[in-house]
Amino acid sequence: MIIGIDLGTTNSLAAYFTEDGPKIIPNRLGKNMTPSVVSIDEEEQIYVGETAKERQILYPESSASVFKRDMGSQKTYQLGKRSFTAEELSSFVLRSLKEDAQTYLGEEITEAVISVPAYFNEARRKATKRAGELAGLKVERIISEPTAAAIAYGLYQKNANTKILVFDLGGGTFDVSILELFQNILEVRAVAGDNYLGGEDFTRVIQELFLKDTGLSEEELDSKVLGMIRKQAEQCKLSFATENSYTMSCQIGEEKKQAVITAGRFEKRCEPLLDRIKRPVKKSLADAKIKVSDIDEIVLVGGGTRLRLVRKYVAKLFKKMPDTSVHPDEAVALGAAIQAAMKERKEAIKEVILTDVCPFTLGTEVAIERGDDKYESGHFAPIIERNTTIPASRTEQFHTIYDQQTRLSIHILQGESRFAANNVSLGRLEIEVPPNKAGAEAVDVTYTYDINSLLEVEVKVVSTGEVKRMIVKNQDVDMTDEEIEARMKELSYLKIHPRDQEENKLLLLRGERMYEENVGETRLEIEYELREFERVLNTRDEAAIADARRTLREALDELNEDW
C-alpha cells in the first residue's frame, strides 16, 4: 500500500485511501497529528511526537523542532552527544508515521507520496526525498502541498472551469498557489511563498509581548523557562479563536510573573506578518496574469489559517469568504493519500491529470557585451522561467566570445536575480568546441524539468553534433545511494522508544513539567500522584497500570485547570 504523508514544520500526518474516501491514520496515541519534534535521551533512545514535545520543555538541549525550515541545508542540530541534519531528523518523524501506519493498517508500508511546500527549491525537495529513503520508504512522488490540498477539497471533481487559490499557512512556511481546473486536468498556474513565515512566527509575537509586559528578556532566562513560556504562548494564540484575552504566567524562582495578552493588541503587533502574506499573493496573481475577481474558490490550508485574524485578513483581501469545509490541518495529508490512490490505479477514484509549475527560474551564467568588443561576465540568462508548467523543455543558443576559444562552461543556476552570484548554483557542465573566430561556434543548451523535480541539462555543439548530458545534483547536499544506505544502517542503531511504553512516558513527562511549573501544595500533590503511578508501573500489571494511568491523567487535568 502507498500512503500519503504531510511532513509539516509543526505537525505531521499520514493518510490512506479507502472505499469511503481518504482517511487520516491515527498515531500510536490515537491522535491524528504527530508533532514534528525529535528528542534523544542519555541511552540514545529516540522520541518522536508528543513525548518529544514534552521532553523539549524539560530537556531542550537534547530536542529539536521546526527543522523543516532547514531542509536541504548543511545546518546540523546537536541533540545530546549526537548531531543530525534536518533531513535525518525528518526521517525519524517519517519512520514514526510509517510504523504507526503499519500498526494501524496491519500491513507493511514501503512506499509513500510526500508533500512539500510549493516554493521549496531543488535542494529542499531532494532533502525531503532523502528523508523518506532514510526512513525506509520508497518515495513514489513529491507533491506540492497546495495541489494536494486542492485534490482533498474535491475540486478536481468540479465540471466547470474553475480558478482556485490555495492559501497555505503552515507552522513554518507560507505558500500561495493558483490552480485552474478544466475537464480532468488540474493545472498549477503560479506559485509564490515565504519559506520563513508560518504559525510559529505568530506564536513568537505573543511570547515577545509577554516578555515585554513582565520585564523579562530571553538572555536572562534558561531554556526550560523559555520552553514553558512558548507553550503558553501557543495556547494563548489558539484561545483567540473564541476569547479576547488570555492570562499568561511563569515562575521565576519564588516570584510569579503574570501578564494579560489581548487579542486586539496581538493583532496590531501581527500587522508586519500580514504584510508579508500580501506580497506572495500579489506576485502569484501577477505571474498567473489574473485579477482577484477572477478567483472562483479560495481554499485555506495549514494550522495558521485557523487564526481568526488570518481568516479576517483573507476575507478582506479577496472580498470573498474562503472555503473551510475540510480541516485545514488535514487537507494536505488527505490529498496526498488521494494522489497515492491514483498512483495505485484505485477504481474508486476518478483519474485526474496533475500539472505543476517550476517554482524558480532555471538558467545559466553568461557574459554580455558592453561595447568595444568587451564582455562583462556574471550575468544570468533564464532558460525555464518560474511558473512554467511542467514537464517543460526549453532550448537557448549561446556562442563563444573570443577567438580560438576551445571550451564552454555551462553554469546551471536557479533563482530570480540578474546576477549569477545572487542565484543558487546547481552544478556545471563543460564541453569542448572547435577553435574558431569569436561567435562562430555555438551550443544549444536544453533544460528539461519534470514533475518529480528532476532537471536534465543537455548541451549540443552545433558544428560537430557532440552532446553532453547530466542530471543535476546539488553536490553540496546530495548523497549517493551507497551513502544513504550506510546512513540508514547508522541511524538504525537509534531505537524509537517502544510504543507500548509511550503513553506512560508521556504522562510522566507531563507530570514532571507541571511539577516544575508549580510550587507549594500543588507541587506536593503532583509529586504524590507521580510516585503512586511509578509504584503501579513497577508491578507490571497491565490492568492496574491502565487504571493508574486514567487516575493520574484525571488528577493532572484537574490540577492544570486550577493552575
What's a quick, concise take on this entry?
This protein has about 575 residues and is of the alpha+beta class. The chain contains 14 helices and 28 strands. The two termini are about 45 Å apart.
What tags apply to this protein structure?
six-stranded mixed sheet, alpha+beta, 14 helices, Nucleotidyltransferase, domain 5, Substrate Binding Domain Of DNAk, Chain A, domain 1
Please characterize this protein's 3D structure.
With 563 residues, this protein is an alpha+beta fold. It has 3 domains: 2-198 and 272-357, ATPase, nucleotide binding domain (Nucleotidyltransferase, domain 5), CATH 3.30.420; 362-471, Substrate Binding Domain Of DNAk, Chain A, domain 1 (Sandwich), CATH 2.60.34; 499-562. Strands 1, 2, 3, 4, 10 and 11 form a 6-stranded mixed sheet that branches. The protein has a 6-stranded mixed sheet with strand order 17-12-13-14-18-21. A hairpin with a 5-residue loop joins strand 26 and strand 27 (467-471). Helix 4 (145-152) packs across helix 10. The protein is globular and about 90 Å long. The two termini are 46 Å apart. The mean pLDDT is 86.
